[in-house]
Amino acid sequence: MYKAFIRPVLFLISPETVHHLIISFIKIAFKVPFIAAFVRFFYTVKNKKLERQVAGLTFPNPVGLAAGFDKNAEFYNEFSSFGFGFIEIGTVTPVGQSGNPKPRSFRLKADRALINRMGFNNNGLAAAIRQLDKPHKLVIGGNIGKNTATANDVAYKDYLRCFSELYAHVDYFVVNVSRPNISDLSKLADQDMLEQILDELIKFRASQSISKPIFLKVSPDLNLKQVDETLHIVQKAGIDGLVVANTTVSREALATSASKVKGIGNGGLSGRPIRERSTEMIRYISKKTDKKLPIIGVGGIMSAKDAIEKLDAGASLVQLYTGFVYEGPALVKRINKAILKEA
Predict the structure, then answer these.
(1) Is the peptide bond before 44 cis (omega within 30 degrees of 0)?
(2) pTM for this one?
(3) Does the domain made of 2-337 have the CATH classification 3.20.20.70?
(4) Strand ranges inside 139-249, DSSP E
């Protein structure tokens, strides 16, 4: 139904407007008695065989919603009803910011892809914390970043503030230093700056009674030398895992016309075009670390087969974003049923 009737209508509207409309509709609909229960019955697959123990956490199933969808932690409870095993909120920055000028999100339908340059638009740390105070039972990750106005040489302060103030409210963290649509953010992935950020987070975590997992989100545009350098930093710092991979600046081998792509301009490309590169990175990192480093696989998962591919390559968990947009909520159920068949 989604692909045949709902998606064609939604795709007549700009991606960012559709996003807000869907969220508003779901939040209103879930206030109607029994709607949430009906959605859970229809989309959720419950089976102990789907459970995953990763970085000390128990996930009811390995399929999550990637960061960027619920930037402000506003609807994680509603979206948990669609069968997700975990939801990652954010990216959260210390102070709310509007992000880049609109339009900043674009569909490449011929490629089943998206290009976005949102620019870490969010309501800020305090707003996210207020939302996270709502009762919930699902696993929640907190994706954290720096404010655009914060200079890179003091960026660690933004990450530490988000980390420390969100610490009591989320189950794991993702350090986001690889967004292609944030000016100079990629420089934070340089060894010295990245080590400074991670060291500050590790120091704070050591002062807490509960140790919460820290993942680092990496770019698919890293070459193998850069991947090796990142693994060295991660292992040296004592980070718990990686999220592989973020969006790409590459525009190679797209079915969409070059003129249209050029007209869209800068931004991170997600969806089917990055599936293979993401899986290659997962396989390389898994082999390089003897499968001992947990990996959350994301990028180009448009079908159950794509998810199984990433799990077979070495991912412990997978996340959806663009695939969820193109395939609808039934994709989560299809992936979990396929995993059970493989079990």
Answers:
(1) no
(2) 0.95
(3) yes
(4) 139-144, 172-176, 214-218, 241-244
